[in-house]
């Protein structure tokens, strides 16, 4: 597929997890086109009962998977929003992924995911694992 055909790629399969990296580039792939910066954001409202349950749960040994923090829940939602936004631009990869999290004055947690949406192509000599 040519880099100029990014809009046709917007309806293709989702961005593969191995094509989302914090680095400036993805080993084994050439960046055909940078499609711009994308972000996803999530705000998780403060829940007093959930926070209390997490504290009690950690004292009595409840699995950590059942006691996700608000920031962890927000991170998953923000990442999903970022991937959706990147896919709408025709990207099949994200580079320079970063997260920012903070507590708001009302006690809610805001998580923002940032990255650069790119169109990737396997470099010569590498097997194609990222869907184009």
Protein model, in words:
A three-stranded antiparallel sheet has the order 1-3-2. It has a single domain, classed as Translation Initiation Factor IF3 (2-Layer Sandwich), CATH 3.30.110.70. The chain is built from three helices and three strands. By secondary structure, the protein is α+β, with helices and mostly antiparallel strands. The protein is elongated and about 55 Å long.
Count of individual beta strands: 3
The separation of the N and C termini measures 7 Å
User: Architecture, CATH level 2?
Assistant: 2-Layer Sandwich
**How much of the residues is beta strand, in percent?**
25-35%
Structural class: alpha+beta
The biggest sheet, with number of strands, parallel, antiparallel or mixed sense and barrel status, is: 3 strands, antiparallel
The CATH homologous superfamily corresponds to Hypothetical protein apc22750. Chain B
* Number of structural domains: 1
The gross shape turns out to be elongated
Report mean pLDDT, rounded to a whole number.
79
CATH class: Alpha Beta
Helix content: 25-40%
Q: Can you list the strand order of the major beta sheet?
A: 1-3-2
Number of helices: 3
Uncertain runs: 1-11
Order of secondary-structure elements: HEHHEE
Rg computed from alpha carbons, rounded to a whole number of angstroms:
18 Å
CATH topology: Translation Initiation Factor IF3
């Amino acid at each position: 597929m040519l880099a100029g055909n990014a809009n046709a790629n917007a309806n293709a399969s989702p961005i593969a997890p191995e094509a989302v990296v914090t680095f400036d580039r993805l080993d084994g792939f050439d960046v055909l086109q940078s499609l711009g910066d994308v972000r996803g954001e999530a705000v998780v409202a403060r829940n007093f009962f959930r926070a209390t349950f997490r504290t009690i749960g950690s004292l009595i040994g409840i699995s950590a998977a059942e006691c996700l923090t608000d920031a962890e829940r927000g991170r998953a939602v923000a990442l999903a929003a970022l991937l959706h936004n990147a896919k709408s631009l025709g990207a099949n990869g994200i580079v320079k992924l970063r997260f920012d999290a903070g507590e708001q004055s009302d006690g809610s947690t805001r998580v923002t995911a940032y990255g650069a949406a790119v169109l990737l192509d396997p470099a010569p000599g590498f097997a194609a694992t990222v869907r184009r």
